[in-house]
Amino acid sequence: MGLTLPRERAVGGRFGAYGGRYVPETLVAALDELARLYDTARDDPGFWEEFGALLRDYVGRPTPLTEAPRFSERIGARVLLKREDLNHTGAHKINNTIGQALLARRMGKRRIIAETGAGQHGVATATVCARFGLECVVYMGAVDVRRQALNVYRMRLLGATVVPVHSGTRTLKDATNEALRDWVTNVPTTHYIIGSVVGPDPYPRMVRDFQSVIGREARAQMLESVGRLPRLAPYRFQ
Q1: pLDDT at 232
Q2: How many angstroms separate the CA atoms of 206 and 47, rounded?
Q3: In 3D, which of 149, 143, 84 has the Cα closest to residue 123?
């Protein structure tokens, strides 16, 4: 599966009033390197061919578009669900982690770190690290470690080191802070896989592009099954 993306670039890492970089000086060179490499990979058909093959053969894409007749009847509108829960690992998170793992491999970085709250991004990161033979460290607030024990078990089963964070509120915000501290210390060997459209450039662009497979599939499936695009396409992205 190839992927053709628009040639637009976020000017200075910004999307209008949003975006940019507000990071420690020690991370600027690492982010510049990542941005250069991603811009090169973004224009490389071979990169997207490998990405698409992994989505198809490893993740199990395309995910189906499933009609929800009883829910449709209840709310008075025809509802179709894009079933990202049927991906390998049970969520959309793996679309992004596979793409970033491919970039880490191109940079020659063998150690991956991530933050996670509910654990889905941590599981997806641990899964791709196991697939590519990369060391994986996942930071998770101590409160979330207790609440999401099953996902902690899954991450450790996949070979990841899960580090409980006991500072602050002991939740996702604090896990993110610890992951950033790790990255500052280990930039030459480590890539930080951020799980959402947040963080310094180029992360929002990367996550947007890797997750665009969902909308591209849904658009084609709607045209094939319904004959037109939906009037409304709500999406809960975390």
Answers
A1: 85
A2: 13
A3: 149
Instruction: Could you list the beta-strand ranges (E) of the chain.
Output: 14-15, 18-19, 65-67, 80-82, 111-116, 135-141, 161-165, 190-192
Distance (Å, whole) CA 123 – CA 93: 9
pTM over 0.90: yes
Query: Cα angle vertex 220, ends 219, 221, to 5°?
Result: 90
State the architecture of 22-61+93-213 in CATH terms: 3-Layer(aba) Sandwich (3.40)
pLDDT at 16 over 70: yes
What CA–CA distance (Å, rounded) separates 94 from 158? 14
pLDDT, tens digit, for every residue of 187-222?
Answer: 999 999 998 888 889 999 999 999 999 999 999 999
CB 179 within 8 A of CB 113: yes
Compute the distance between CA of residue 181 and CA of residue 137 in angstroms, rounded to an integer.
13
Q: Which two tokens stand for residue 25?
A: 């000086």
Q: Render pLDDT for 78-137 as a digit per residue (tens, 0 to 9).
A: 999 999 999 999 999 999 999 999 999 999 999 999 999 999 999 999 999 999 999 999
The residues, ordered by sequence, that sit 6+ positions from 28 with a Cβ below 8 Å of its Cβ are 21
* Secondary structure of residue 115 in the 3-state scheme: strand
Question: Which DSSP letter does residue 186 get?
Answer: S
- Rounded to the nearest 10 degrees, the angle between the axes of helix 93-107 and helix 120-132 is 40
| Residue of 7, 4, 12, 8 lying closest to 35 (CA atoms) | 12
